């Protein structure tokens, strides 16, 4: 209420009862600060549209797993447009006031309460009803942001793994390929050497990453267990690089003890003759899956078949300890 008491004679003032006056929507204190309200409304509407498009762009970028640069830029534009629009609306399109109320005895009469409600409704009419288009735009931009805010939950959780972790891109005949796309020849690695390899159609794949180790001499067939009699030609063995504990990359090889170490939680796996990557220390619950190998007529290392068991840690769909 602006100057509700003792302010007789002002534009829009209407006497109610002795000592009580109120003001109408056309009173000076209800005038906005903008010299051209319609033009300011268009500017505020443009800012809200910019904010809406920014939030929509962030949602689309997040859903498509875009770069962090575009995610940050689109979200920043959304907040900038929405925030600047709200500030401009509040500064230039809201009633200027001042709004004050003189001290008077507590316990207002019924008539005073009714006039207070009427006066408060007049303010809302000026602030909102006259700016219905902006209210709708603000509501739309806020609604888009509310929906987009749920994207991290919906997109990041993603679908259940289902059969995703049961197989990898390794297939019968897949060439062992380096991270740079070069096929591995049988003469490329010396005894004791280690190399991370992938199938040619999934270079860099998290589930397909495999550790190739030459534990034996050229011409030596390394057997980790009887059922894998032909899986280690020319001294080569290949094991999944995805740790069976928490999925970290098993990247360290101790040549003297013929053991693989996962640096995340210190799981230690024995490899070599009669030891098919069995965990001997740390929290890993099961051995690393072994990839069967063969050497083709040109001397290139290829997969004899894909992994015969899921790689990585246990998960809900499969069961087992993680």
Task: Report on the architecture of this protein.
It is elongated, with a radius of gyration of 36 Å. The chain is 30% helix and 14% strand. Helix 1 (37-63) packs antiparallel against helix 2 (68-93) and helix 1 (37-63) runs parallel beside helix 4. It folds into two domains: 14-157, no CATH class; 176-303, Rieske Iron-sulfur Protein (3-layer Sandwich). By secondary structure, the chain is of the alpha+beta class. It starts with 13 loop residues before the first strand and ends in a 19-residue tail after the last strand. It contains five helices and twelve strands. The chain has a four-stranded antiparallel beta sheet with strand order 3-4-5-6, with no helix packed on it. A four-stranded antiparallel beta sheet has the order 7-8-9-10, with no helix packed on it. Strands 1-2 form a two-stranded antiparallel ribbon.
What labels would you give this structure?
single chain; 322 residues; Rieske Iron-sulfur Protein; 2 domains; 4-stranded antiparallel β-sheet; 5 helices; 30% helix; 14% strand; disordered N terminus
> Could you tell me the number of beta strands?
12
Structural class: alpha+beta
Cα radius of gyration in angstroms? 36 Å
In angstroms, what separates the terminal alpha carbons?
65 Å
In short:
The protein has 322 residues and is of the alpha+beta class. It has helices spanning 37-63, 68-93, 110-127, 132-149, 151-157, and strands spanning 14-17, 20-22, 176-177, 194-199, 210-214, 236-240, 252-254, 259-262, 267-270, 278-281, 293-295, 301-303.
Compile the SSE list and pairings.
Layout: E1 14-17, E2 20-22, H1 37-63, H2 68-93, H3 110-127, H4 132-149, H5 151-157, E3 176-177, E4 194-199, E5 210-214, E6 236-240, E7 252-254, E8 259-262, E9 267-270, E10 278-281, E11 293-295, E12 301-303
Antiparallel strand pairs: 1-2, 3-4, 4-5, 5-6, 7-8, 8-9, 9-10, 11-12
Helix pairs in contact: 1-2, 1-4
């Amino acid at each position: 209420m602006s100057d509700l008491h003792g302010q007789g004679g002002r534009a829009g003032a209407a006497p109610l009862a002795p000592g009580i006056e109120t003001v109408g929507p056309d009173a000076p204190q209800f005038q906005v600060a903008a010299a051209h309200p319609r033009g300011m409304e268009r500017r505020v509407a443009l800012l809200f549209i910019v904010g809406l498009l920014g939030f929509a762009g962030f949602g689309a970028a997040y859903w498509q797993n875009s770069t962090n640069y575009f995610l940050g830029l689109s979200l920043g534009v959304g907040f900038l447009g929405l925030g600047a629009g709200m500030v401009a609306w509040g500064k230039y399109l809201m009633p200027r006031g001042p709004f004050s109320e003189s001290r008077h005895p507590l316990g207002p009469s019924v008539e005073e309460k009714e006039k207070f409600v009427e006066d408060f409704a007049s303010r809302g009419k000026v602030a909102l009803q006259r700016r219905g288009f902006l209210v709708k735009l603000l509501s739309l931009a806020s609604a888009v942001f509310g929906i987009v805010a749920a994207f991290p939950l919906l997109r990041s959780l993603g679908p259940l793994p289902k059969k995703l972790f049961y197989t990898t891109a390794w297939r019968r005949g897949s060439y062992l390929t380096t991270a740079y796309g070069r096929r591995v020849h049988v003469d490329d690695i010396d005894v004791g050497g280690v190399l991370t390899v992938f199938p040619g159609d999934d270079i860099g794949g998290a589930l397909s990453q495999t550790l190739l180790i030459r534990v034996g001499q050229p011409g030596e067939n390394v057997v980790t267990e009887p059922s894998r009699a032909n899986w280690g030609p020319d001294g080569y063995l290949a094991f999944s690089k995805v740790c069976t504990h928490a999925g970290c990359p098993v990247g360290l090889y101790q040549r003297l003890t013929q053991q693989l170490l996962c640096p995340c939680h210190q799981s230690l796996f024995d490899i070599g003759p009669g030891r098919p990557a069995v965990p001997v220390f740390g929290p890993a619950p099961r051995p690393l899956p072994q990839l069967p190998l063969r050497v083709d007529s040109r001397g290139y290392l290829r997969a004899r078949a894909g992994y015969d068991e899921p790689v990585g840690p246990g998960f809900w769909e499969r069961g087992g300890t993680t």
